[in-house]
Structure formats: structure tokens, C-alpha cells
Please model this.
Amino acid sequence: MLGLDKGEVRLAPPTHHWKELFHQEKKILEQHIGEYVIDIQQFGSTAIDNIKAKPIIDILVGVEEIGQVDAFDKKALKRDDYYHLPGVQIEGKVVFAKFSDLERLTKTHILHVVEYEGDWWKKHLAFRDYPNGHADTAKEYEQLKTKLAHDFSDEEKSYTNGKVRFVEEVLRAALLDKAD
Model:
């Protein structure tokens, strides 16, 4: 089942359906915001092959400049259950979430709008691509996520913070790999 309630942390076994669900959403997003978008990619754990992940599809939207988000058809996005998350303040990024249940705040998709080929774009895709090319790193990440999900099953922020050091290490390794 796709989606998690607010604050909930639960991992699901890997499935090819995550990629199919991403492609379905990509078509919807292209209809609503396609004129402003350079590229749309799946990233996050559901885009890393053969590992458990929170059943939420992370979508990376690359735009020429972040201010173009203001021109997005937010009414059309809302009709498809996407809501801007103004409380999520991250420099260089605008975040939307798709909810299947607004009472329980059940998120199924998170939309990260960033500048195409900018720092966020490169980091998110490097973190997706490196584990996909290094199965040992992917399994190590899965083990960390499993432990954190057990320890922080109802503390999403603690779960996320517990991954920071690992993510930074993978990004360093990806940069070194790219330099070779």
C-alpha cells in the first residue's frame, strides 16, 4: 500500500510498482506544470533497486529557476491532491505533497521542485544513482533504514536525521567516483 500517515515511519519491501506509479504521476505533472519543467525524475529510496523503502514516491522536478513555481497551476495540482507545503522551508527547494487522506495527512508522493542541474538536483540524483551502481552501499543503506524505522516508528524527523551522516558519506563517494 502506498502512503504513510503524518509522523509514521514504516518500510515496505521493494516493488517494481514504485517505478510504474512514478511514471503515472509524471504524466499528470506534465499536464499541469510541464511548460515550466525541464525534467522530472524519481529519486529517494523507492528509486533505489531492491531495498526496502517508505512507501512514498519522491519526485524531483527541475525548473530553470525556482521562482517559476509561482506560475504553477496550483488549483490543478490540488485537484490531483497535491498541496504546497509552505511550512517546509528549504533554501533552493519548494515542496508539495500528494495526500490520499487529508484527515490523517496520508502522504503518497512528495514533489521536490529545484533548479535543474543545480546543487539539489545533482545531490538527489547522485544519491539515487550511487547505490544503484553499488549493491553493497544499497544494502548498507537498507540496514540503516531498517534500524531507524524500528527505533523511530512514530518519529519521522528522528528517522530522517539518523540518515544524514550516511547520505553525506554516499555523496562524497559519488563525487570521488565521478572524478575517476
User: Anything to note?
Assistant: The first helix runs from residue 17 to 33. The two ends are 41 Å apart (CA to CA).
